[in-house]
Design brief:
With 458 residues, the protein is of the alpha/beta class. Helix content is 47%, strand content 12%. It is built from 18 helices and 14 strands.
């Protein structure tokens, strides 16, 4: 708080001098003004954090000064003071943005406490703006580099973006990204890469579960010509491909233990050796690993090396599933509608309110990827009109009473709810499958699968 700059605008000299002396003993930088014109001169020259403003002033009243300050210097927080107990003035001051209001006389220690509260508010505002800036920067970089953005307005997703922007600056730090399938782990990894000083080098993504054990070493480290049967030409490995850049290892826990040991050695020595070669090659690669599995359980079962885990987990980012940030679903829906409409060369359609309700209630086992696929399918099926539930065949049908106030009880049994609705639809249509399927906004084949799933026989 030592660098806080405070401007006191009051026409009483004794009060100005007294409060200046008191505040300066706490390390604040204090500016004084006896009239509004002098105060605005100070505001133009110094970056004031807090203004202590009297209500009764020459030239113009304090409320008018407050309005002008908030219009021209919106970051300045204002504490109002007055020698007159005027409740209308208090209400006006708060309406126009004052953070505190003190009637004279008041204890200076109370003013100090108010300044401390305001300082905490200023710090939160600064942090929020930094996160907003980071969020905009990440979205811009990803849109330009990979065509997708990280969308959402929830506290959880903004925390992810904040962590991304911070760890991107430490471009030698290994990162472990955890979260369910479809949450966007590779997108976060690319965001870290494109926000770092490595952004002009290569980002190479590897799905460890898709590489046969027999090819792991060759793929990671490369080989010399003739090193083994079938090695008809020299090949460089993924570490050399990503040299100077980032190597993203998706589903790292699927890597076999012998390769885990070799990977650990490379991370520690920063050198690799191609199969069949006699010399080491130095590499400068940032490793970002990811998994959708419970890595702690794998460590306990000795299925993943502890030393490799701690080497990779210098910095962990957990991406929450979509069902834990439902407030982001309408934002993501709007984003994917615009993105997919452009790609499919279609006009962006309007969406029926029932679709938003149903999507917000759905538990999304496939997370953001599933929502994107739902939107793409609905756009392909639509004829350019409003999107209704009939274009979202994979979405469980839900009734208004289940969607009370668009909130869902996390303990609610969705399977039981769907089964009950199917039975209700069959009863309403006298057990005619085609009509029941139409009522449920699903296909006849989809209804048959659900009947079999829930053991509904008639």
């Amino acid at each position: 708080m030592e660098n806080l700059k405070i401007l006191v605008l009051d026409d009483e000299r004794v009060f100005r001098d007294e409060i200046k002396e008191f505040l300066e003993t706490d390390g604040f930088e204090v500016y004084l003004a006896a009239k509004p014109s002098a105060a605005f001169d100070v505001l133009r020259q110094a970056e004031i954090d807090i203004m202590i403003l009297d209500l009764k002033l020459p030239e113009m009243d304090g409320i008018s000064v407050l309005q002008k300050v908030k219009e021209q210097y919106s970051d300045v927080e204002v504490i109002m003071i007055t020698g007159h107990g005027d409740m209308d003035a208090v209400i006006q001051a708060m309406r126009f943005g004052a953070v505190e209001f003190f009637p004279k006389p008041f204890r200076l220690i109370d003013m100090k406490a108010a300044i401390q509260r305001t300082k905490r508010y200023i710090n939160l505002s600064i942090k929020y703006k930094e996160v907003e800036h980071s969020y905009a920067l990440v979205s811009k970089e990803l849109r330009e580099s990979v065509g997708y953005e990280i969308m959402g307005n929830s506290k959880a997703i903004r925390q992810v973006v904040d962590l991304m922007s911070k760890v991107a600056k430490a471009d030698t730090t290994s990162v472990l990204i955890t979260g369910e399938s479809g949450t966007g782990k590779e997108l976060v990894a690319r965001g870290i890469h494109y926000l770092s000083s490595r952004k002009n080098a290569y980002f190479h993504a590897v799905n460890c579960s898709a590489v046969p054990d027999s090819l792991f070493e060759s793929e990671f480290f490369g080989h010399k010509k003739g090193a083994f049967t079938g090695a008809n030409e020299e090949k460089i490995g993924w570490f050399e491909i990503a040299n100077g850049g980032t190597l993203f290892l998706d589903e790292i826990v699927d890597m076999q233990q012998p390769m885990q040991s070799k990977l650990l050695r490379v991370l520690e020595d920063k050198k690799i050796r191609r199969i069949g070669a006699n010399n080491d090659v130095s590499v400068d690669v940032r490793i970002i690993a990811a998994t959708n599995q419970n890595i702690q359980k794998l460590l306990e079962d000795s299925k993943f090396r502890n030393d490799l885990y701690y080497r990779l987990n210098s910095f962990e980012i957990f991406i929450p599933p979509l069902r834990e940030r439902r407030e982001d679903i309408p934002i993501l829906l709007d984003y994917f509608l615009k993105l997919m409409s452009q790609r499919l060369n279609k006009k962006v359609p309007s969406v029926d309110a029932s679709v938003v309700k149903a999507l917000t209630a759905y538990h999304f086992p496939g997370n953001v990827r599933e929502l994107r696929n739902m939107v793409e399918r609905a756009l392909i099926l639509s004829d350019g009109g409003k999107l209704s539930l009939r274009f979202f065949a994979g979405l469980p049908m839900v009734e208004d009473e289940i969607l009370h106030d668009q909130e869902v009880d996390e303990q609610y049994d969705l399977d039981e709810a769907e089964k009950r609705l199917i039975v209700k639809a069959l009863q309403k249509t006298d057990y005619k499958k085609v009509e029941a399927a139409q009522l449920l906004n699903i296909t006849r084949q989809s209804l048959d699968r659900r009947l079999e799933k829930y053991g509904i026989d008639f």
